[in-house]
Amino acid sequence: MRFRDRRQAGRKLAERLREPPEAERLRNPVVLALPRGGAPVADEIAQALHAPLDVLVARKIGAPFNPELGVGALAGDDPPLYDERALATLDLTPAQLAPRALEERTELRRREQLYRRGRPPADVRDRTVIVVDDGLATGVTARAALRSLRHRRPARVILAVPVCSPEAAAAVGPEIDELVCLDRPDPFQAVGLWYEDFARVRDDEVTDVLRASLAPR
């Protein structure tokens, strides 16, 4: 399955979430986007469910020789979460990655301040939380975000993504109550291959989505 763009993917996910039996589980939902790519997907879901929208910021920790190759991630105040198999394969240690993790922590704080503009995080305690991204390749960034989210005591956590690798689906399983994924291609390769338009989402697009979500609809 290929998607035209992130918004079309979000509408398809919203349709799936509103079907039984998923619909019965969506009591008092909150939608949290993993920015930046998850923001337009999550916006479509939040509109369809008439649910509040916020962000759940996490940062990938890339390999020294290839920043796009995620070997770990961090979110909130939690320590970095590393993909132990990737570290072993690449002969890397957390100590070697500490400087990069510190850089990503600084960027995480910058983005949280930029996106929220002083607003507190959404109250998710005892609510159904739908965490949304545009796709999962390794799942390490989503895992870090989901672990951080659990500290805020949601009643139920659903991870909703248009496309994910079978390996990522297995990796995030222990962190969630339910995974809603429209397609799990194998071989997977990369998230962008499953979109016709996979243009980079800018910071201002994320802030625009959040600002619009606060206005009456």
From TrEMBL:
Keyword Ribosomal protein recorded:
no
Q: Where is the Phosphoribosyltransferase domain?
A: 11-167
Question: Out of the domains of life, which is the source?
Answer: Bacteria
> What SUPFAM superfamilies is this protein classified in?
PRTase-like
Q: Which GO terms describe its molecular function?
A: glycosyltransferase activity
Keyword Transferase carried by entry: yes
Name the chain's protein.
Phosphoribosyltransferase family protein
**Organism encoding this protein:** Streptomyces cuspidosporus
